[in-house]
Write a structure and sequence with these properties.
The complex is a heterodimer of chains A (about 300) and B (about 160). Chain A is α+β, with helices and mostly antiparallel strands and about 300 residues long. Helix content of chain A is about 35%, strand content about 25%. The longest helix of chain A is centred in the N-terminal third of the chain and has 40 residues. Chain B is mainly α and about 160 residues long. Helices cover about 70% and strands about 0% of the residues of chain B. Chain B contains seven helices and no strands. Chain B is globular. The two termini of chain B are about 15 Å apart. The chains are: A alpha+beta (about 300), B mainly alpha (about 160). At the A-B interface, α1, α2, β1 and β2 of A face α3, α4, α6 and α7 of B.
Chain lengths: ~300, ~160
Amino acid sequence: MLRLSPARRATLQRITFPLLVLASAMMIALGKSDQIGIEALRNRVMDAAAPTLEMVSRPAVLLDLAISRARDLIAVYQENAELAAENERLLVWQQAALRLASENAELRNLLKLAPEPAISYLTARIIASSGSVYVRNVIINAGRENGVVRGQAAITGDGLIGRVTEVGDRTARILLITDLNSRVPVIIEGSRRRAVLSGDNSDRPSLRNTEAGTAIRIGDRISTSGEGGIFPAGLPVGIVTAFEGELARVEPHAALSLVDYLRLVDYGRSDLLPGSLSLAQCGKRPDQSLGQPARR
Amino acid sequence: MASLLPVATTVFAMVLSIQPVHIPGYTAVTPAFTLMAVYHWTIYRPDLLPAFAVFIIGTLQDLLIGGPPGVTALLLLLAYATILIHRRHFANRSFPFVWAGFTLLSCVAMLFLWALHSLLAAAILDCRGAVFRGVLTVAAFPVASFLLGRTQRALMGAG
C-alpha cells in the first residue's frame, strides 16, 4: 500500500472514482456486444473461484446429507416398504421398456434407419447459483478436463434442467430453463405438436411459438423435440399447470432450487449394434462417468 | 493483517451471495450481502475499503453470476459514493438509525437494478422479485451488521 498523505489520497480518490464508474458503465455497454472477450474472462474467473466455491458450498451439502440421513432413520421402516413397492412397479416397467426397445430396434433395422447414438452421462455438483432475480444459471464443478462440451443438456432424474453455455477448464456454466434467454424446442406429448419453452426468469416457463390450432390442456406433458439439434429428443421437461390468458405455463418436473447433483447428457459416436439396448444405459446409475465405450 | 478485514469480509459476502441454498425460490430473492458489507465498512472504516476494491469485488460478482458484467460494480460504486457523502449522519448513531439508512439504500438499489436490467433486456421486467429481494435484504441486515461489528471489534479494537 502506498503511503500517501491524506490530501493526496483524497485527490487520488476523487480522480479514480469517476474513472471506475466509467469503467463499469463501459463494461455494461461492451458486455452487450463483445461476447467473446467477456466469456473467456468469465471462464477464467469461474475456474479460479472453483476451489473456494467448492469448499464453501460443501458444508451446505454435508448438512443436507446429515438432515436427510436423520430423516431417513426416523422413517426407515415405512420408507423401506414404499421403496420395495415402487421397485416392483419399476421392474414391470423395465421389462416393458426392454421389450419395446428390442421391438424398436427390429423395426429400425427393417426400415434401415441410422442407429441411435450411445448415450453416456457425466455427473457434476452445483457449486454456485446465480443468486439473482434477473439471471438464472448455475456453476458446476466439471469442465473441459472432465469432458464437458458446450451445448450438452443437463438433467436430473426428474427431467431437463438446462444446457451448458460456457465451459472452463474445471468448471462450466449451465443456463437453466427458467432463464430469460432459455429457449427449448419441445413437443406436447398428447397432440405431438411442437412449441418452444421460453423462460422469463419466473419459476414457470411458458410455451410459445405453438403451431396454429394447437390445443393445449392442463396436464399435458412436455418433452424435448430434438428440433435444431440443440437438445436431444425425448427428455422429459414438465407439465402444463396453468394458463395466463392464452399463454400456457409449464411446471418443470425437476425441482430447480433443490438440485445438488445433475447429469450432463452426452451423445457418443453411433452405436454399431442397434440391439445393444441403449435404453438400458438410461437406467438410473448416478455415478456413471463419461467414457463408456460404445459396444463393438 | 487486520487492515485487510473489510475487503476480506466483503469478498466473503460476495461468495455467500452465490451459494446454492435449497429453499424453493431462494435464488431469486438472495439478500444482497455484498451491499450490506459495503454499507457497513464505508460507514465505519472507509479508509480500509478503497473504491478500487469495491469495483473489483463488484466485477467478480458480475462475472461469477453470469449476468451483464459491470452491473454490480456500478451499483456498488454508486452506493459507496452515496454512503461516503452522507457518512457523518450515520457514523456515530444508534443501530436503528443505521438500519433505516440501509433500508433507504436497499430500496434505491433494487429499483436501480430493476431499471438497468429492464433497459438491457429492452423490456419491462417483473418487479415482484426485486421487491421480495429488497425485503429480505433489509430483514437480513441486522444479523450481518452484528457479525461485521463483532469481527471489527475483535480484530481491530474499537476502530
